Amino acid sequence: MRQLACITSLFVLFVIGVYANTEKVIFLAPAAINLPETLKNLQLDVLTLSAFSLRKSLPVSFPTEEQPQGEESWYLLRTLKDGQRYEVRICWAAIQPTNFEIDVFDVDRVLNIPQLVERIPLGQHQHQTLDVAPIDQAESILFLRVWSAAAFFTTNKTLMQSPPPVDVDIILDPYLANVFPKSLLPTAAYIICLAVSSWYASGIIWKVLSPTAAAGEKVHKD
Ligand SMILES: *[C@@H]1O[C@H](CO)[C@@H](O)[C@H](O)[C@H]1NC(C)=O
Known about the structure:
The structure is a single chain. The chain is of the alpha+beta class and 222 residues long. 32% of the residues lie in helices and 31% in strands. It has helices spanning 2-17, 107-112, 114-119, 157-161, 185-221, and strands spanning 20-28, 45-47, 53-58, 71-80, 85-93, 98-105, 140-150, 166-176, 180-181. The strands form 2 sheets. Strands 1, 3, 5, 8 and 9 form a 5-stranded antiparallel β-sheet that branches. Strands 2-4-7-6 form a 4-stranded mixed β-sheet. The longest helix is centred in the C-terminal third of the chain and has 37 residues, at 185-221. 2-acetamido-2-deoxy-beta-D-glucopyranose binds at residues 156, 158-159.
């Protein structure tokens, strides 16, 4: 009975723990490049290593034949390090069911695919200005595209016709030694601490219990 209660409470903990969803893309930063004049006038939100997190309220729509992936938004990843591995994560609350699709494109790819370059907002919108230097010299730079499609069903017609925007965090995370995401370091440290301390704890518990064990053995021998 007690076991059952334990399992149930563990399960409840687990269910409460899962409150957010994540979608991510992993990539290597490209070589530094001079941005061509046509792309100089970008008015995109920027993610850099110092401003690595962006909180946005993203418009969503239900998938249609013309736009099967929903609404599109573009960002700029700057001050990357050539050859370094990064990931970009998008996190959102599970109470706002959404399908995200994220891709990165280097400058060449954007320039060579007219359908892409057409869709990047060039100086149309005045986004929040981030404290980043203008792009004057060669820089390792990538475009980030996010598709967001609503993924829920409700009998409420208002919500089905105009799904509310979804609050997201977009996070740029470098990998340490190209192997391990930097932001997961505290979690890894926690797990290692837990493993080491349980090793010692088990030693102590064994010592505490072993006189009884030894006594028990003695009784057996006699
Ligand atoms: C439908 O959802 C909207 C937005 O959340 C809400 O204002 C409205 O009261 C809902 N309508 C019904 C019939 O529940």
